[in-house]
Every structure is written in C-alpha cells, then in structure tokens.
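debug: dumping io for the single-chain case to check the tokenizer round-trip. Nothing else runs in this session.
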Amino acid sequence: MCWRIWARVLFPLLAMQLIIGGFSALALADAVRPTPEAVLDTRYRLVLDLVRHTATYSPPVASRAFAYFGTIGYEATASGRTDLVTLAGQLHGLQSLPKREPGAAYDLAVVLDAALSSATRRFFDNTGPTGQRAMNSIDAKFTPTVIEGLPSDVVERSQAFGRDLTAAVSNWADGDGRNEIPNMGFPLEYKLKEGPEHWRPTSTIAQQQAPLLPDWGQTRTFAMPTGATCALPPPQTFATDKNSAFFKEAQEVEDTVLHLTPAQKEIARFWSDDPMLSTTPPGHWIQIALSISDKLELPIDKRADLLVRLGVATADAFIGCWQTKFEYETVRPLNYIRANIDPNFTPLLITPPFPEYPSGHSTQSGAAAAVLTRFFGDNFAYEDSAHVNDGLPPRKFDSFWAAADEAAVSRLYGGIHFRTAIERGLDQGRCVGRYANALITAK
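debug: decoded output
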C-alpha cells in the first residue's frame, strides 16, 4: 500500500489508537518514508485527538492553539521555497523568524516533523498522562520513518531548524498572555451585570457560576486589527411584552424545540461539537479541511496555506465573538423562556456557560466558510464525515456557506440561541474571514 493511501486510511485512526493504547498494532517500520503532506496530516490528527481528550480545551482556547500550530506548519514549508511569503510582519506581533542556511541541504518532511512535534508539546502540553504517552509514542515510532535513509547532517540540520522555528513562534505566542488558563477559564470572582436582560448562570455546577473567559475578547488578534474590528450592532432590545421582537424570538426558540423533526435533531447534534466529546467547533472545520486536502491530493504548499488561514480565521473569530458577547452579556433563551414563557422549558442541547449574543458557532463557521470558499470556490460540494466514529452519519453540502448556515441554525434547533445572534454571528464571521483571506502567501 502506498504511503499516501496508508496515511489517509490509517492515520485518521492513529491518534485515537495512541490515546487508547493500541499503537503497537501499527507496523510503522515497514512504511514508505512519509511525504511532507503525510507528516502535516499525521501531526494534525494527533493534536485533534489531544484536544478531544483534554478538558482545558474550550473552543476559544483550542482555536488559539490551532492558529499557532498552523503558523508553524506554514512557516516550516515557506522557509524552503521561493514562491511563498512569510507571515512575519503580517500576523500581529510576529516580527521575524529563523531562516535556513543558504546553500545547506534540508529535508522538508524532517523540518515539519520536528517543528510540529515540538509545537505539539508547546501548545498541547496540558493534556493528561494518556495524551503525553501518545505524543511520546508517535515521536518514537513515526519520526524514525521520516528520517530513514537521509544523511545524518541533513537530519540534524532539518530537525534543529524545525525546533528553532517552533521556539520563535512560542516566544511570539508568549506575548498574547494566554499561555495559562486558570480554573479552565472560569474566573474565581466575577460581577454579573444587573438586570434581567443580562446573562445569568444556566448550570448548577459551582465552577460555572461565572462565565467562561470573559476577557478573551481582549486577546491579541492574529490578522484582524483588534477584537472590536468586526463589531456588531446591539442585540434586540430586551422586553417581556408579547408583542416585542425579543419575546417573539424567544417564542420561536421554544416553538422550534417543542416541534423538532428528527432531521433537525440530527443537525443540532452533528454540529454541537462539545468540548471533551469532539475536536471542538474549530477542530471540526480543520477536520473538513484535512479530508478535502487528502481527497484532492493537495500539495504541501496549498495544505499549509489553507490550514494556517483556517486557524487564524477561527481564532480571530472567537476573539471577536467574545468581545461582543461581553460587551452586551445577553441573557440565554433558557433563562428568558423559563422566566417569561414556560418554566419547564428544556432545550435539546446543554446551554454553554457564557453570554448569548452572538452565536460563537455562527461567527467561527462564517469565518471558516470564507476561507474554504476562497480556496475551493462558491459551489464546492463535499461530504463531512467528522462524526462517523461517534455514530453520526456523514452530511453532504453543496457549498461551505451551506454548511456554515446549517452549523449556525443548529443552535436554534438546540434551543441555545436566538435568531438574531445566529444571523449576525454569520455576518461577523464573514468580516473576520476577510482579514485571514487578505494574508499574502504567494509571491
């Protein structure tokens, strides 16, 4: 079996098998030396599973890690090419990066493997003991296949450069102030805004009596100027009158939940992407990008470009979304409906522990769709099988915007967002995506 097919078939399972301790069943030593594309794919699939099995990776935190990981993968690739432009000087705060020695021999697969191995330990190091064993196992079993047959000086030079590159990006990352996330992102003290229009806890869990990451909107952005760049108008004016727009939106949520069709329930669950039960919403879009890249057999330069833009777009989307969420701190449908319409209202999905407006799923899906559409076009049909291993059948889409629209409306079906938050979240995502798409990567 050729390496590309072997990687495509087995490596989606590799990281999971590492997680559950089944790595020894795979005979990596007999494989053909991996291509750079296979290295990128393999390392991404490992970190996706680390996110899935690590409690601290809420969607904003995961998106940040994916953005830095994507930057390292892209810069490792661009450093050895004359047709690609570095992102240093384009991404905020990233001023300079190590350069390869002129005239010296490097191997891209080795550079990528070393860079992304060290990046995994830097940006996904807070995973548990099983995840640590997974990282150690893949380094011990996979890396030897990457360096096999190469001159020792090329291996040493390539690995050193890859690690130096990760160290430089790590130093850059230190400047955003988000390396440590105390108490999983829930502040120990938080003063709630007064008034029934504002967010109140929707969970009885003690930790979640304060909202998740209330200052995430002030995080240093990657491509868009600031977290407030893609600001939104205020949500619907709060009111309890039955003729008000706010009440009618709440009534729509309740009516929708009470009359969900099987298809709508399937959509809500497919896009739920809960932490610890999935790769999170940004990871879901990365899974889509990896699957399409494999199907189209994209070369390494295109893959690296796609993945860094997608990481940057979704990371900036969460920063922008959280800035807006905590500007308004809007009440969730659960609390409003129970107080004003139906005290027994129970949504299909668990309401996340942070303010309602806008929908984070909508914002980051809009940003992701903008990037993927730039790469593959307005009417690119594809199949999303991100949750096949979870027992959910694949879903087919005629375009990325169709998928983003479905991801957004899934939050209405789930009973956790008002329609205004959904629609304006998509608008915000389109705005964020334009900045990621404006990055210059080709000369």
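debug: round-trip ok. Confidence is low (pLDDT under 50) at residues 1-30.
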